[in-house]
Amino acid sequence: MRRFLSSVKPTPAMAVALAALLVATAGGLAVAATSSTPVIRACANKKTGALRLASKCRRDERIVVWNQSGQQGPAGTAGVGGASGAKGAQGPQGGQGPEGPEGLEGVPGPAATSFYTNVAQEAPPATLDEVNGVRVKGSCNGGTKEAVVTIETPGGFYLTLSGTVTKAGEIKHVESGLITASETFSGFITEVDVMARNFYSVHFSRISVHGAFPLGPEGCTFWGMVIPSA
User: Fold this and answer.
1) What is the helix, strand, coil percentage profile of the chain, to 5?
2) What total number of domains does the chain contain?
3) Predicted structure pTM score
C-alpha cells in the first residue's frame, strides 16, 4: 500500500535528499505525471528517509508524490486609489482668430424730408412737400382764422389716406379711399398725422403736419415731416 509525503517523518538526511531532489528537478530529472497536473514521483527509504527519483520503489522504500506546481493562491485585494493630483495651472491665452468675411452693404432706404415755413394770409396755397405722387399744401384763411392743410394727388388721381387729425384739441379718425383726389383739414391749430398714397402708386408716405394761425398780422406757420416708403 502507497503512503504519501505526509506519512513520512522528516529527518536530517531526508532534508538533504529533498534539496538534492529539487536541484535535480530543476535540471530536468522530474518525472511527468500522466494526469493533467504535473507531479514529481520519488522513493523514500523506510529507515534512513533518503529520497531518490524513480517510477517504481523497492520493498524497503515508500513512494512519495507531490505536485510540481502548488495550488493557485486567493486573489489579492484591490489597491486603494491614490489621491487626486493638484489642479494644473491655466494655459496661455490663444492667439486671435482670423478676421471674418466682410458683410454685404445694405441698400439705403428713402430719406425723410422736413419743412418749416410761413404762408401769408389770403396767399395762394403753398406746396410744403411732394413725394411718391402725393403733395402737401398749406394756406392761411384770414376770414375764418384757420391754418389749412391739403393733401392731394397731382393730376386728379384717387387718394388713399388714413390716420388722425387734431382740431381744437379733439382727435378724430380720418379715412379716404377711391372717393376724391384731395383731403383738406383746417383749424386755428391743426395737427395732421396720416398715411397716404396715390392710388396708382404702390408706395405709401407717412405725413405729419402742424399748422397754426397767427395771433398777429404775420402768416400761418407750417412745419412737419414726410417719410416715404421704399
Assistant:
1) 10, 40, 50
2) 2
3) 0.53
